[in-house]
Amino acid sequence: MTQAHTIHPLLESLDLVNHPRVVTDIRGDETHESDNMVVVRAPATNQPIAAVTLDSAESYEDITIRSVEAFKKWCTVPAPARGDLVRRIGNAYREVLEDLGSLVSLEMGKIKAEGIGEVQETIDIADFAVGQSRMLYGKTMPSERPLHAMKEQWLPLGPVGIITAFNFPNAVWGWNAMLAAVCGDSCVWKPSLLAPLTAIATNTIAQRIAEEAGHPDLFQLVIGTDDVVGETMIHDKRYPLISATGSCRMGRHVGAAVAQRLGKCLLELGGNNAVIIEPDANLDLALKSTVFGSVGTAGQRCTTSRRLIIHESIADDFVAKLVKAYETVRIGDPLDETVLMGPLRTEGSVEQYESAVAQAKAQGGELLTGGERHNPGGDCEGGNFVKPTIIRAPKDNNLPIALEETFAPILYVFTYTNLEDAIDMQNNVDQGLSSAIFTGASASAERFLSPTGAGSDCGIANVNLGTSGAEIGGAFGGEKDTGGGRESGSDSWKSYMRRQTCTINHGSELTLAQGIRFE
Ligand code: UN1
């Protein structure tokens, strides 16, 4: 490949052309794919967009030292003033919402509406964090000793290592960084090598605003391979918290390494999310939600609906309608606003999709629609497109491939007779991120959300809406192999701080707890 490369207008509008680590004058693999450079290809065409220089062990060290110093200064800034900086960052993202969302779309492949939605999620969490900056509440508790007071306070933690996946290349950093910043922490972000341009554009904005406020190293990026950068970071005690998003396999490795040094880990890993549909549900609503949940982002959300568990009495009709809806989904250039489904991120993802479909068939699954590559033609001839796919499990519901998370738009259909069995089936996977039930009966909804814990075992359980597309206000994350971490809303901010219990004696006597006398 030697033809001259044209610079995408988004690289100009987001000022990536002038960024020291972005190379736009690229001609192909030979010159730029090397140990210290990665070529970023658009998933819709597999053509290069730009190349990005990678960090070395030395630059990682320099970034970490600067982050430690930045933390020392930043943690002395009052929390509401930290919130003020985050407010300015959120406002700066508002100004580039459309372009940054489009860059997400170009580089990652999700459709433009979802790319913009993702940046909106960062703006939302920035707003949330601004409010939180005045609410880093501790507690006071009564002391058992006379003339003593007890309180608990939350203190800044230190530099936070943020490892993100390709599929949410902007918002997952936002969830972490906006909260970490109001909590008084500095951030070092290691983005996926499949989406470094979004990371550079995103971080540069935050970095510029922090620099204007006298904190140039508050938000830093370290872009590199897992071997050179990732391994060092997870073993590095200077990061008291590693927040990592990605596969269960990656999380197991990161979790073990961080636990070994007794650091804290926030893991947001894979999901295998199911939608249960009861016969009394609003089926129109269920249909639309299921299509968004399974086809949205081309099945590359950790919250994607991967399993449909539907009552046998309505299964045939509903699935027939679903197949029809799938076949009308327009697949193509994610920046074309009439398109509903873009490409998978890489050719490797397409191969994983094909392999899952082949395994499902070999295991007795019935392919109802999709199951093959798609060629939208035109400029997107060489892209990583597949057809959204529905596979019906055999009558005995035994389909082992459905226990795995394949990051692609494949929906496996199971049927049930009793709600109890449906809930068991939905829980009977290793992952525990998101779940949903569609029902018209409050009793079934309550059963699904049972406070005894006998309902959904996931971190997210929805009634009459799908598994994906959570708002930032709730805590986001899941149980079991999903890793147990919680990011984003509610009290997730506590992960970015350390807790201190303080007892204050304002008398002049030594009084020991538990009534101990020591005289
Ligand atoms: C992810 O896929 O890693 O709930 C995050 C959702 C989005 C976040 C997904 N708000 O689908």
Key descriptive features of the protein:
seven-stranded mixed β-sheet; 22 strands; five-stranded parallel β-sheet; alpha/beta; Aldehyde Dehydrogenase, Chain A, domain 1; 3 domains
Main sheet overview: 7 strands, mixed
Whole-Å distance between the termini? 85 Å
Small molecules (ligands, ions, cofactors) in the structure = 2-aminohexanedioic acid
Tell me the name of the CATH class of the largest domain: Alpha Beta
Given the structure, what is the number of helices? 15
State the shape: globular
> Unreliable stretches, pLDDT < 50, 5 or more residues?
none
Describe the structure.
The chain has 519 residues and is an alpha/beta fold. It folds into 3 domains: 9-52, no CATH class; 56-269 and 483-501, Aldehyde Dehydrogenase, Chain A, domain 1 (3-Layer(aba) Sandwich), CATH 3.40.605.10; 273-471, Aldehyde Dehydrogenase, Chain A, domain 2. It is 37% helix and 19% strand. It is built from 15 helices and 22 strands. It has helices at 9-13, 29-32, 57-74, 79-95, 97-108, 112-132, 171-182, 196-212, 226-235, 248-260, 283-295, 312-328, 347-362, 419-427, 442-448; strands at residues 22-23, 37-41, 48-53, 139-141, 148-156, 160-163, 187-190, 219-221, 241-245, 264-268, 273-277, 305-311, 366-369, 389-392, 410-416, 431-432, 434-438, 460-463, 475-476, 479-480, 487-488, 497-505. It has a 7-stranded mixed sheet, sandwiched between helices. A 5-stranded parallel sheet has the order 8-7-6-9-10, with helices on both faces. A 3-stranded antiparallel sheet has the order 1-3-2, with no helix packed on it. α5 (97-108) packs across α6, α6 packs parallel to α7 (171-182) and α11 (283-295) crosses α12 (312-328). The termini are far apart. The mean pLDDT is 96. Bound molecules: 2-aminohexanedioic acid. Residues 121, 167-168, 172, 245, 301-303, 468-470 line the site of 2-aminohexanedioic acid.
